[in-house]
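Re: weekly structure request thread

Next one in the queue (302 aa):
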Amino acid sequence: MSKELKQAANEFADYLQAARGFSVNTVKAYETDVLDLATYLSKLEVNQVAQIELDQVRDWLFAADQSGLAKSTLARKSAAIRSFSAWLKKNELVDVDFAQRLKSPKSTRSLPKVVSRETLAEIFQSLSSKASVENPNAMRDLLAIEILYASGCRVSELVGLNLEDVDYARNILRVMGKGSKQRMVPFGVPAREALDAWVRHGRSQFLNDKSGQALLINSRGQRLGVRQVYALVASLTDGTPTGATGPHALRHSAATHLLDGGADLRAVQELLGHASLGTTQIYTHVSVERLRDGYEKAHPRA
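Done, posted below.
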């Protein structure tokens, strides 16, 4: 008997999390994509996995493309359905891997936003002037931005940090990256000073039975959330040449500034936790673009 499509989607999500070690965000995105396909197919009275055909999936992707979704989102949706289809075939829930020949649209990768050193210096100066024992929120905000820029970590890695993840002797953080992969990332003296101030004088003011071992907590004593960090970075970058942007821009900035300063590409790859060196190489393009822009503005014969 064929399995109901939405039930299969839920079981597929459980498989991704348990067997593949995908991040929570990836699992959620893939599950949402499969459920989106299920909703689309239900209008065609297709509710069982055995009824799905490749042309139906292509029509779904075409409709998504026409709605204005980014190429990268369409590529992820294609990947989610290919993975779902392969899982169905492996578990003998369908006779044919219907999405095996499904192609992803080519993603046009744009260069990431980078916050300039000058803008970052102004941001840090502003945060430092507000950070005090009387303003523990500002102490925490300063530490959050220092860690994001110093280590190049993802926002999910930042908010997931616990007290025991800090190696004070070597100024190193242990972060949990994508696919539940741990890596060690260094941080500098300014981040260390912000860390010491927060742990000694700021965190204790918010600490309660909800805090656990979370390094960064909010005024209610709960682990700081991703949305709070997004709002913080957006407020700090609003009105700057970069424009309001999210925490990933600080990760981009850290990588770009390291390469601008002569850091080895593979060292930056390790720092960022990229599985492929090709992913890290986007930052070399950013550096070249910055060089070209500076050349055209400054050279008399540009």
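Residues 71-90 form the longest helix (20 residues). The chain has a mean pLDDT of 88.
Next request, please.
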